[in-house]
Amino acid sequence: MSSAETGLPDGWEVRRSNTKNLPYYFHAVTKDSRWEPPAGTDPEMLKTYMADNHSSKGVAPAAFAPTEGKIRCAHLLVKHRDSRRPASWREPKITRSVEDARQMIGSYQAQIQAHEAGTGQPNAKSLSELATTESDCSSARKGGDLGFFGKGDMQKEFEQAAFNLAKGEVSGVVETASGVHLIQRLE
């Protein structure tokens, strides 16, 4: 895999963690490794490469076994400059306003609603499809899947919305210190 293919700076490559079964970034010369892409990454090229080569399709989630009192959700996160950590695998420094993030999540929400309605619109996509390429959370590698979690494991606003969803249901827009979310309850 070349930097022309991945959008990563020279010397960097994408590898898969044996323990977490997730992709990470590795520099063969310096032996530096990280979960977030290094500075100088072309986010559009990386987004395309990750969607083509590291999506969750066919990956058996080992640590996704249900436990009493826990639910499983996926989400799509759009961060903004006032987010708790305004950086992601897509963008090393996020500068968009909270209003821009709300507009983006609104656009994604419309695409998800069109997908669920089965309208056949060309831009209709599932939350998982959109999360894989558009989410600012590292869970994008798994289609936004966060696995199972219980009460007290997530930020209050996120937890409240998630636990109020029926299986398969997608939330409205949820704002937390991390950014703006859409959440889908999987189990």
UniProtKB/TrEMBL annotation:
<dbReference type="Pfam" id="PF00397">
    <property type="entry name" value="WW"/>
</dbReference>
<dbReference type="GO" id="GO:0005634">
    <property type="term" value="C:nucleus"/>
</dbReference>
<feature type="domain" description="WW">
    <location>
        <begin position="6"/>
        <end position="40"/>
    </location>
</feature>
<dbReference type="InterPro" id="IPR000297">
    <property type="entry name" value="PPIase_PpiC"/>
</dbReference>
<feature type="domain" description="PpiC">
    <location>
        <begin position="68"/>
        <end position="187"/>
    </location>
</feature>
<keyword id="KW-0413">Isomerase</keyword>
<dbReference type="GO" id="GO:0003755">
    <property type="term" value="F:peptidyl-prolyl cis-trans isomerase activity"/>
</dbReference>
<dbReference type="InterPro" id="IPR001202">
    <property type="entry name" value="WW_dom"/>
</dbReference>
<dbReference type="InterPro" id="IPR046357">
    <property type="entry name" value="PPIase_dom_sf"/>
</dbReference>
<dbReference type="GO" id="GO:0005829">
    <property type="term" value="C:cytosol"/>
</dbReference>
<dbReference type="Pfam" id="PF00639">
    <property type="entry name" value="Rotamase"/>
</dbReference>
<protein>
    <recommendedName>
        <fullName>Peptidyl-prolyl cis-trans isomerase</fullName>
        <ecNumber>5.2.1.8</ecNumber>
    </recommendedName>
</protein>
<dbReference type="InterPro" id="IPR051370">
    <property type="entry name" value="PPIase_Pin1"/>
</dbReference>
<dbReference type="GO" id="GO:0060261">
    <property type="term" value="P:positive regulation of transcription initiation by RNA polymerase II"/>
</dbReference>
<dbReference type="InterPro" id="IPR036020">
    <property type="entry name" value="WW_dom_sf"/>
</dbReference>
<keyword id="KW-0697">Rotamase</keyword>
